[in-house]
């Protein structure tokens, strides 16, 4: 059975985030789901290369999941993963050896395929491929920041004057396709008096946002605020590093 079919037994874990809040995001079961879903995503990039193989534990979970779920249909997905993790921890060295051996074989095969693939890349492609881990980390950090802000119910950043103009124009057009270039040109040609309405609205929204943000900051746990700040700093540093590598 394909390793990635394990994900089918974990999809219901998404529900636990809504029910259990931030604690669900920190659980081993959720991290496993996130890992599997991330690895399952198809990447059509010509620079992708061969996929990394699963480790011994994931091989064990992949093999045991179908039978375990059949025998324990009453268990929730997170309970299944928790129990499989416990089963893995009590395996003897001899019982683990088969999975460890298979994982090593898969790893050797992967390294050979990876090296062969890299040898076919041009210098430009190799440079782009070397940036891929940074891009991946940046995307992951942005996703985590977005999820955490939603979980903590952080106030939404208000729209600026031009964005308000675009939103209003889009609504007036009947929700048709947006022509940003045309709207930008129209905005540039507008008189200051015409823009004043949107500028005023944006300023008022910003003032409300500032008050809401101050109130929100006071009631949110400092640990979560620190995590948000760490993510923002990481995103800024990764973005700067990627710009410098161009």
From TrEMBL:
<dbReference type="Pfam" id="PF00505">
    <property type="entry name" value="HMG_box"/>
</dbReference>
<keyword id="KW-0238">DNA-binding</keyword>
<dbReference type="InterPro" id="IPR050342">
    <property type="entry name" value="HMGB"/>
</dbReference>
<dbReference type="GO" id="GO:0006357">
    <property type="term" value="P:regulation of transcription by RNA polymerase II"/>
</dbReference>
<dbReference type="GO" id="GO:0003677">
    <property type="term" value="F:DNA binding"/>
</dbReference>
<keyword id="KW-0539">Nucleus</keyword>
<feature type="DNA-binding region" description="HMG box">
    <location>
        <begin position="50"/>
        <end position="118"/>
    </location>
</feature>
<feature type="DNA-binding region" description="HMG box">
    <location>
        <begin position="155"/>
        <end position="217"/>
    </location>
</feature>
<dbReference type="GO" id="GO:0005634">
    <property type="term" value="C:nucleus"/>
</dbReference>
<dbReference type="InterPro" id="IPR009071">
    <property type="entry name" value="HMG_box_dom"/>
</dbReference>
<dbReference type="InterPro" id="IPR036910">
    <property type="entry name" value="HMG_box_dom_sf"/>
</dbReference>
<protein>
    <recommendedName>
        <fullName>HMG box domain-containing protein</fullName>
    </recommendedName>
</protein>
<feature type="domain" description="HMG box">
    <location>
        <begin position="155"/>
        <end position="217"/>
    </location>
</feature>
<feature type="domain" description="HMG box">
    <location>
        <begin position="50"/>
        <end position="118"/>
    </location>
</feature>
């Amino acid at each position: 059975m394909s390793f990635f079919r394990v994900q089918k037994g974990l999809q219901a874990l998404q529900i636990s985030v809504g029910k259990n809040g931030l604690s669900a995001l920190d659980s081993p079961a959720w991290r496993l789901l996130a890992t599997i879903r991330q690895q399952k995503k198809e990447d059509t990039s010509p620079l992708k290369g061969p996929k990394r193989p699963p480790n011994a534990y994931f091989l064990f979970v992949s093999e045991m999941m179908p039978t375990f779920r059949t025998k324990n249909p009453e268990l929730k997905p997170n309970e299944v993963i928790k129990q499989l993790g416990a089963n893995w921890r009590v395996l003897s060295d001899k019982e683990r050896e088969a999975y460890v051996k298979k994982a090593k074989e898969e790893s050797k095969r992967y390294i050979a395929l990876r090296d062969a693939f890299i040898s076919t890349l041009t210098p430009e492609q190799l440079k782009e491929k070397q940036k891929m881990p940074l891009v991946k980390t940046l995307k992951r950090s942005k996703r985590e920041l977005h999820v955490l802000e939603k979980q903590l119910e952080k106030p939404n950043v208000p729209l600026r004057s031009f964005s308000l103009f675009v939103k209003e124009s889009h609504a007036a057009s009947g929700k048709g396709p947006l022509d940003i270039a045309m709207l930008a040109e129209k905005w540039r040609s507008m008189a200051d008096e015409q823009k004043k309405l949107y500028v005023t609205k944006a300023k008022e929204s910003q003032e409300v946002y500032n008050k809401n943000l101050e109130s929100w900051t006071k009631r949110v746990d400092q640990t979560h605020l620190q995590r948000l700040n760490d993510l923002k700093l990481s995103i800024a540093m990764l973005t700067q590093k990627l710009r410098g590598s161009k």
